[in-house]
C-alpha cells in the first residue's frame, strides 16, 4: 500500500536522531520498505548513474546472522529491518540502460549520450574515481532514506560499526559493490539522545579559507 505523507521537512530533519532501541514486535511492510527505497533513489547522482544498491534484511534469521558482524549492536535484531546501502564500483555500466532509454524516448540526442558515455568511461579508468563516486553518491541515497523513514514516522540508525568484509562474504555481495553502511529502520522504543552540533560560526567559512 502506498501512502502519501505530508510533513514539515525542517521538522523531519530536526527530529531525526540515531535510534538504537526499537520495538521488536513492530514490522514495517515490504511495500513500505520499497516505498522508502524509491524515495531514497530520488537522490541526485553524478551523471545520474545511481551508484547504489540496497540489501534489505527483514528476516529475523538474517538479522541474527548480521548481529555478530555488526559487533553485537542490538538495533540490528530489534529493528524491523536493516538496510545495507552498497555503492556501485562499476556505475559506468549504468550509463547504457539509463541514457539508452532516454535516447529511445527522444529525451536525449544520440550525440549527447555518446559524449556523456565518453566522459564517464574516461573517468572510470581510475579505480579511485570509481570508489570515491560509489561512496559519495551512495551516501546521498542513504541520507535520503533516513529522512524518508523519519517522515513516515519511523526511526533509523546509520552504522559504520560492522565488519564490511565479513558482511560481503556472508551476504554474497558481488565484488562490483562496496558496503557503505547499515541502516536500521523501525519503530523507536526509546528516543535517540540529543547530540550536539558545532555552531554555524564554527562550521562555515564564507567564500574562502
Ligand atoms: C557513517 C556513520 C556511521 C555510524 N556508525 C554508527 C554505529 O556503528 N553505531 C551507532 O550506534 N551509531 C552510529 N552512527 C550514528 C552516529 O553516532 C550519530 O549519527 C551521531 O552521534 C549524531 O547523532 P544523531 O544521528 O542522533 O544526530 C553512525 C553515523 C554515521 C553517519
Bound molecules: flavin mononucleotide
Mean pLDDT: 96
Summing up helix and strand content along with how strands pair, one would put the structural category as alpha+beta
The H-and-E topology, N to C, reads as HEHEHHEHHHEHEEH
Q: Which ranges are low-confidence, i.e. pLDDT below 50, for 5 or more consecutive residues?
A: none
End-to-end distance, in Å?
50 Å
Question: What characterizes the major β-sheet?
Answer: 4 strands, antiparallel
Which architecture of the domain at 15-89 and 135-192 does the CATH hierarchy give at level 2?
Answer: 3-Layer(aba) Sandwich
- Based on CA atoms alone, the radius of gyration comes out at 19 Å
Write up what this structure looks like.
The chain is globular, with a radius of gyration of 19 Å. With 209 residues, it is an alpha+beta fold. It contains 9 helices and 6 strands. It has a domain at 15-89 and 135-192: NADH Oxidase, CATH 3.40.109.10. A 4-stranded antiparallel β-sheet has the order 2-3-5-4. A two-stranded antiparallel ribbon has the order 1-6. The protein has helices at residues 9-15, 30-40, 60-69, 75-78, 95-104, 110-123, 127-151, 164-170, 200-203; strands spanning 21-22, 52-57, 81-88, 155-159, 177-186, 188-190. Residues 17-18, 20, 73, 157-161, 181, 192, 195 line the site of flavin mononucleotide.
Amino acid at each position: 500500500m502506498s501512502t502519501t505523507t505530508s510533513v514539515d521537512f525542517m521538522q523531519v530533519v530536526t527530529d531525526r536522531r540515531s535510534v538504537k532501541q526499537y520495538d521488536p514486535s513492530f514490522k514495517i511492510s515490504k511495500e513500505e520498505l520499497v516505498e522508502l527505497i524509491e524515495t531514497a533513489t530520488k537522490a541526485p547522482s553524478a551523471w545520474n548513474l545511481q551508484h547504489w544498491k540496497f540489501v534489505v534484511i527483514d528476516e529475523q534469521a538474517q538479522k541474527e546472522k548480521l548481529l555478530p558482524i555488526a559487533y553485537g549492536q542490538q538495533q540490528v535484531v530489534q529493528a524491523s529491518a536493516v538496510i545495507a546501502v552498497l555503492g556501485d564500483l562499476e556505475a559506468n555500466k549504468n550509463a547504457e540502460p539509463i541514457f539508452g532509454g532516454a535516447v529511445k524516448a527522444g529525451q536525449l540526442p544520440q550525440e549527447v549520450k555518446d559524449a556523456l558515455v565518453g566522459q564517464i568511461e574516461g573517468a572510470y579508468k581510475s579505480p579511485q574515481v570509481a570508489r570515491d563516486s560509489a561512496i559519495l553518491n551512495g551516501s546521498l541515497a542513504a541520507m535520503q532514506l533516513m529522512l524518508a523513514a523519519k517522515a513516515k514516522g519511523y526511526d533509523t540508525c546509520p552504522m559504520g560499526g560492522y565488519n564490511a568484509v565479513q558482511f560481503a562474504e556472508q551476504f554474497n555481495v558481488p565484488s562490483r559493490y562496496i558496503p557503505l553502511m547499515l541502516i536500521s529502520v523501525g519503530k523507536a522504543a526509546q528516543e535517540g539522545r540529543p547530540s550536539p552540533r558545532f555552531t554555524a560560526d564554527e562550521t562555515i567559512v564564507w567564500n574562502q579559507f
